[in-house]
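Dig into this one:

. . .
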Amino acid sequence: MAEIMTLKEIDDRFDSEWVLIDDPRTNEALEVEAGRVLWHSKDRDEVYRKAIELRPKRFALHYTGRMPEGTAIVL
């Protein structure tokens, strides 16, 4: 996909999927606001493998669904 999409457009198009975003556009708090989708899948590991394969210079990983209760996110 070559088009730049907002985070809302990404969330709407890829329901409950992991998304690899190339050259993400961020706000002052470094929160992703838009970018170009390189890959998406319901399988997180598949998206990680694609990131290793494509080696984008600057990227973000985004999950469009709700995290299961009890899930911890480590930054």
Remarks:
- Strands lie at 4-6, 18-26, 32-41, 59-63.
- The chain has a mean pLDDT of 93.
